Automatic annotation (TrEMBL):
Family, per entry: Belongs to the tRNA nucleotidyltransferase/poly(A) polymerase family.
Top enzyme class: transferase
Keyword Phosphoprotein: no
Record-given protein name: Poly(A) polymerase
BP term (GO), one: polyadenylation-dependent RNA catabolic process
Short name of any one Pfam family annotated for the protein: PolyA_pol
The keyword Cell division is assigned to this record: no
Domain tRNA nucleotidyltransferase/poly(A) polymerase RNA and SrmB- binding: 128-189
EC number: 2.7.7.19
Organism: Candidatus Enterovibrio altilux
Amino acid sequence: MNDLFCNCRLVGRRFRLAHILFGRDVIEVATFRGHHPGDKNKKNTNQSTDGMLLHDNVYGSIDEDAQRRDFTVNTLYYNINDFSVRDYAGGVEDLKNRVIRLIGDPETRYREDPVRMLRAIRFAAKLNMKINTTTAAPIPALSHLLQEIPSARLFEESLKLLQSGHGYATYAMLRKYNLFLPLFPSFKEHCTKDHSSKCEQMMALVFKSTDKGVVSEQRINTAFMYAAMLWYPVETRAESIAFNSDLSYYDAFMIAANDILYEQVKYTAIPRRFTAMIRDMWQLQLRLSLCSGTQAYKLLEQPKFRVAFDFLEMRAQVESGQLKELALWWDAFEKADSDDRNYMVHVLNKEHSTNKVRRCHKIKSCKHKTQPNHN
């Protein structure tokens, strides 16, 4: 393929593939895979001590390739000579019964490539199918094997899982089979049995919103999805840092943001172009919450104001109270004409001034009460 097409790129370390590029379209070409027990060439086949295939470049026949496939529904081959579908492992029957079934011994196949566990979840959620009992049984106990997968590959898998148009159903299945925390470990203290924590409510909102966007063919903002998902882990960490130090909340928040992102990229390697956007969205959340009258105009001119406001509205749905009032204020301010905006800013400045005086009186009162009595 590489010799035939000048627009061909060979990709993949574990199994070589040819990508033929036509503008934005990519046609992926693979050879038939064969069995490799007798092949001692480590460039062709190599396994880790856990049984994971590090290299899998043994080529074979279509019959051998069918047995090397992961699921029965993936063993269907279209014959262009007579326009028939060749089924080697009962895939058609499983499709009719809407069953995801692994070929071979499940534990062995998962150890060969732990990402197969994620693929089982993705296919089941996206196609509204059930995972065969034997296929599903080993998954929770083997979820730790995902730690052996390169974080760059897991990032790509996370997008396939959560941006397929069935992200919420996928998230629920990842939780069910203990596969969510190996991908997002910072959520450990936020996971509850009844899915009632702020963090879990936020994830439900962001996944359902993403699903609607996919269905309506809108452009999906990966940075927004990750920013919303990680917001409460960052907020919790920031509160802890601020409480246990003399740092301002803003400084504590910035440290927490860096910590959470640093930890997350170890598991799903979020590209820098996204982490920069995530930080911007988080900073804008603080500015939207703490702005004064004059800053309101500047924030409205920010290129990322709209996405930051959508983020704020999502948080308001989770928390209600003052945050909901803040979201309503920004919504009204954005839609108002210049005269109404000037009035809203005047009222806001007056409220800030009153609150400042009240804080000063409170501080003086506290100091007076704590003054030692020398009489």
